[in-house]
Amino acid sequence: MAHVTTEKTLERARAELASGAVAQARQRLRGLVRSQPHNLVARELLAQTYRGGDAVQAGRWAYLSPSLTETEEAAFGKGFADDPVRMMRALAWRGSEEDASTDLARERLRTLRARAEEAAGTRLTWEQARYPDPPSRRLAAAGGVAAALFLLLCLGVGVVTVIRAVIGWW
Q1: Has this prediction a pTM greater than 0.90?
Q2: What distance lies between CA 145 and its chain's CA centroid?
């Protein structure tokens, strides 16, 4: 059933592209890629909706396709500050590189993840493509928690003091 729905969605998107309804096709294809990140046909069609107007997005969505041009690849990199972690996250891939249906896509995914892991200094997954929090940020968070606990302690002592004074235990 899902395959039939996917094919109908791709058919509708192609018809929309042919009729010049690029925005509708783009929206339809973005939804399909979001729900089926391994669908390389949907990614390629989505890239087509951006060609001739937005090389960054064309490169982003054609990244796993043999149709990716050097210009699009360079624009994709530049659009994400040549940061492989940001590029990895932008691809919106899920699972493993091995889930890709072509050797080219698997190789590009592996290469990008290796670059991102080197940049981040840690192992990354497609679902968790993020730089680790720096120690200073963790320390700041711990300091904030400690300050909040101290304020609660002061508030508690103050409340007890007021209650004692009111009922005469002072």
Answers
A1: no
A2: 29
CA–CA gap between residue 161 and residue 87 (Å, rounded): 57
CB atoms near residue 166 (< 10 Å)? 9
pLDDT in tens, the chain (170 residues): 566 699 999 999 999 999 999 999 999 999 999 999 999 999 999 999 999 899 999 999 999 999 999 999 999 999 999 999 999 999 999 999 999 999 999 999 999 999 999 999 999 999 998 888 766 555 566 677 767 777 887 788 887 777 777 787 65
The CATH code belonging to domain 2-120 is: 1.25.40
Work out the burial of residue 44: count CB atoms within 10 Å of its CB; fewer than 13 is exposed, 13-18 middle, 19 or more buried: middle
Structure tokens at 117: 């892991």
Q: Residues 158, 160, 161, CA angle at the centre, nearest 5°?
A: 65
Tokens, residue 32: 């399909």
Strands (E) located in the chain: none
